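Entry 12.
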Amino acid sequence: MKAKISSKSAIIDHRTKPKRKITEPFILKTKLILPMIKENTISRPRLVSLLKKNLNKKLILIIADAGYGKTTLVTQFLFQKRPPYVFYDLETNDQCLSAFLFYLIEAIGKLQTGLGERTRTLLLHLENITSHIEMVMGTLINEIVEKRKEQMFIILDDLHTIPEASFIYQALDYFIEHLPSNVHVIISSRTSPPLLSLARWRSKQDVFELTREDLRFTEKEIKSLLKNIYKTTLGSEELKELVLHTEGWSTGLQMILQHTGAERIKKSLNSYLESNVPLFDYFANEILRNETKKRKEFLLKSSLLEYLSPDACCAVTTIENSNEVLKSLVQNNLFTTLVSSRPRIYKYHYLFREFLKHELSKVVSSKELRNLHMNAAKFYIKKRIWDRAIHHLIESMAYEQTAMIIEKIGADLVYSGRVNLLYHWLESLPDKTVTARPRLLIYKAKILQQWGKWDESLEFFMKARRIFHGTGKQSGEAEALFNISSICYNRGIYKKAIRLAKEAIDLIEDTDNCLKAKLLNQLAGAYYSLYDYELVEQTLKKALFLCHRFHYPKLLVQTKANLAALYYATGKISQALDIYRYLLQSNNFVHNNPPLAITCYCNSAEIYLARGEFESAREPLEKALQLGKEINYKEGQSYALAITGNFYRLAGDYENALNFYNQALELNVDMKQEYINHIILFGMAQCYQLKGELDKAEEFVKSCLTAEQKDELFMASLSLVLGEIALRHNQYEKAEEIFLQSHRVFQKKGPEYNRMLNHFQLANLYWARRNTTKMKEHLKQAIAIAKQERYDGFLIDEINRNPRILGWIRNENIDDAYISVIAKRIQRSNYLEISMLGTFQVKTSGILVTSKMWKTRKAKSIAAYLFAHRNEITTRDCLLDIYFSNYGPKKAAHNLVTSLHFIKKAIGENILIYQRGGYCINSKASVSYDVDEFLQMVQIGDKYKTEKNNEESVKQYLKAVEIYKGDYLEDIYDNWCETSREYYRSIYLRILTLLGEYFYSRGEYEQSMKYYHMMLEKDKYMEDAHCGIMKCYSQVGNRKGVVQQFQKLVTVLQNELGLEPLPETKKLYNRLIQ
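Predicted 3D structure (tokens):
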């Protein structure tokens, strides 16, 4: 919430609007059955052996023209090797990604029950699968990894039937790239598949390829074919002729041998050469000539069918004994394959079918051909196999009937993602048929919208609207307006989107309450984008009423999620949490809507963080991350990682927070989801600021606030970090300008958290400027928001980072009852103040840990060591070596355990923890260190000094001097302190020198001498300090003081070091006393 400066508005968005139930495409199960091996099929041991030797490859490609025995080879390999496999025979109708995926999941599910079910569910609830390819394929891969440990081969036969532009290749590329090592893909195709990663896989030797050259029959294999299958032999001359003219093409060999015996091969080849006709066509024609008239008619007419079932053949050819004819074709090896025995489905060899279709067109008229197609169409219409029915209707030129069927089934095709096929059908119809039917125009527009062609899409939606309007069909016009409004919304034209949506609602009245509910959700999205939250709530509640009354369960879920998103964004977190709990309690909701469930989990976690319930936030975050990985949903994973970053930032673990933010940012690079980027960037800026890396924080924020950034709310939120930095640098006017500018934005829009944070910052500012009236005013408003919105966690976070806030609140008696509860929670959280400059002191919740509470000096010393090395893991051996090296092993171990027990009792059980093999200070604990504050003041002072702003630099140096109560851990006498002690002392002395010089230059000699004397308190041998004091005495006319100071220097150097002052010091002294 803190970083939720742009709520997950993608929820209130037509792109994730409630979806109708997506139907699975008709699955023709024969396409998933491996063809049977015919008895007279020649074995290819040479090629099968090559396949067996390369089973470790990620991908096996078998690429050759038609008739080279690609499928036969795969079948022989599978029957001999018998590995677990999935077979899928593709055809042109499978070119839509959704159809391909449903077939693939069906095939995988046959191999192992339940495998692919999660992916199937996801497919059924995604509106536009092509926008979520990695999510879908990643989900399938994850299922395979989780559930399938054994080897598996996925065979994709005839992949060339899928057009190159199909999204299937993008999906396959991702799928093959990320498959586990136990899964392999075998592709048979006439052309090399257009997979982007293929070249890289080849370079890594992850691919094995068989080409036409490999699949050609050798002379030895042809001899074997003649001897074993055709029971004959050839002389060497005839054999050479056969090899020469067929080039080892298996189908060509089969055609020749089928047509003629071995004794007439030479004569047949000569006749073929004289005919100047392609080899297959010549011999197929010879075979056809020898068939009976009735059988020839059957062959020609049935060639219109892709798959041959007896009843389909009967419907087209009107031949009653189709079953017997098909059986005899297989028995006679007439290029017919039995694909499935139950039911009996056959298929002609591709080349043979193409030849038959061509011959049919020569013997029947165009009208007769159309009638045959109509017979096939009627058969498939009766069977409700729509894709085949429409194919034959188009071929029969029955365009009006085609259009009527498409009108009925088009919506399912759009929602199930089979848009390529639908678009192909629409393009096959005459323009006048499509333009006369507005429903078809809407389908075409939706397809173009899915493809991102918004201008063309808009044109078709507007055409459809005009036709609907002209015919008085108000519900149709309303649907067209709904889609036009969606495009306007997508383009950020929110006011026009609202006007169009309202027009659509007025048209509907009570005729289509489902569409009205969708329009209300979309209208709410547009209002949300204009920050009119009151209208968003009113509109969504109207939609909820319709969903309840007319029972639209899926739309109800989406509308509730939208309402929760609104409450979440506007700070009504308890109401939002109630809705999220209601949704997430349903297993069906999570199962059926995983992307939306991830958002609900993340938003729930943010609400728990806002309330300070860290442990409650863990579970939803873990579930969101797990679910995001399961379905490979990068947007969801990025969002969950960003909220996890918020978790660690609020827990004070800034390194872990930055780690999660960076992971989220990396995932979001390609998606460029703005709302996630806003969370990440705001969180990272806060981390840098809270770590005290002010320069880095300022640079980071300025890099985010570029000219391209147009989101006013995000800019105002991020600017708060710049205001904090200005406040830390005592640039009060600049800080006030930033805070007030952001305040004006937050008054108009954005979550209540931003307003609360802004009021705290303004209270801080006015406290620094001693304007108690304004400080009290903003403090009251901040507390009021925290109490009303239950921002307990955020309030505790603010107080932990700035403990004086609690003092102000109590002094002003602001809401005592509420603050008492908060104070108790802060006390339980053990806010620690660690003082290391001077004697080592620890205060827990404002109470000093006394020597009596430490029990022993050793325990106190070990505590000092652990706090000094707070960013490290300190091993047990390290502590034993430093503190107990003089003891025996058992006693040393006992004393260490005892000391650690004393420390935990003194500072709190949860402060000192054991992790990763050692001890450390809990990164989630609220701890402040005076050394950090000291260094921060020095760094800011140095920055101002570099900028020649001496006044501001001196202010910071004076604060640093005030913090420096003594040398680093001056009451801890262990050797490990010395280096740090010298480091901090050197910085302190440098600051004192600069202060002495500054006040000397301003003529404030008493002040200057004060800082030089402070230097001598730390190091009495510092000649620079003695010289500074002598110069000050000289300026006020105190010659005696100059002499005395010089004598002190001479005495201390001579008596204690046996040295004299430096020549430069003597020269200065002589000049000053003259």
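Annotation: The radius of gyration is 41 Å. The first helix runs from residue 45 to 53.
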